[in-house]
Amino acid sequence: MKKLRAKAEKLANSIIKLYPCVKCGNPNVDPAHLYQHAAATVTDLRCIVPLCRKHHNELDQGKDGKYKFRELILGDLEFEMLLRTNTPTKVDWSERVEFLKDVHDRIKEGELTLEEARSYET
Ligand SMILES: [Zn+2]
After folding, report:
1. What is the Å distance from ligand 1's center to 29 Cα?
2. Listed residue (1, 2, 64) closest to 34, CA to CA
3. What are phi and psi of 32, to 5 degrees?
4. CA-CA distance, 105 to 57, in Å (whole number)?
5. CB of 34 closer than 8 Å to CB of 70
6. DSSP H or E stretch at residue 33
7. From the CA of 10, how far away is ligand 1's center (Å)?
8. DSSP code at position 46
9. Is 9:45 a contact under the CB 8 Å cutoff?
10. pLDDT tens for each residue of 80-120
């Protein structure tokens, strides 16, 4: 199911790319994954943040304090997400592809915001 995972990752990234950098508003973003690429969180929209290349680099270098930065974005979700990252989770990639496709289309149609889509993640 490698193909489906790749498809889900691509969709998640294209959803995030619909938004500008959260730090400076630059529309050219390189989606930043807050928990590397663990299966449980790699396409979780709460764990991917729109950042321009400059701010993505700063995050990677810990310039802004990686932990503080995550906390700012995820708030109380931080602990729960870390647990998920460290727990081997079986992901239904075809389900993820369907979910992300729907989210992508609805955001593009203006029917949904990223904030709302994130609230659908469990
Ligand atoms: Zn930026």
Report:
1. 8
2. 64
3. -100, 125
4. 29
5. yes
6. strand 32-33
7. 21
8. G
9. no
10. 666 677 776 789 999 999 999 999 999 999 999 999 999 89
- Partner residues linked to 48 by β-bridges: 33
- Residues whose CB is less than 8 angstroms from the CB of residue 11 and which lie 6 or more positions away in sequence, other chains included: 43, 97, 100, 101, 104
Instruction: Reduce the DSSP state of residue 35 to 3 states and report it.
Output: coil
Output the CA 24–ligand 1 centroid distance in Å.
4
- The CA–CA distances, whole Å, from 37 to 24, 108, 112 equal 25, 26, 26
Mean pLDDT of 1-27: 94
At which residue do the structure tokens 């991917």 appear? 48
Place of tokens 């889900």: 8
Q: Is 51 in contact with 17 (CB distance < 8 Å)? A: no
DSSP state of 32: E
| CB atoms inside a 10 Å sphere around CB 99 | 19
C-alpha–C-alpha distance, residues 121 and 34, integer Å: 16
What pLDDT is recorded for position 56? 87
Cα of 8 from ligand 1 centre, angstroms = 25
Using alpha carbons only, what angle is made at residue 69 by residues 64 and 71, rounded to the nearest 5 degrees? 150
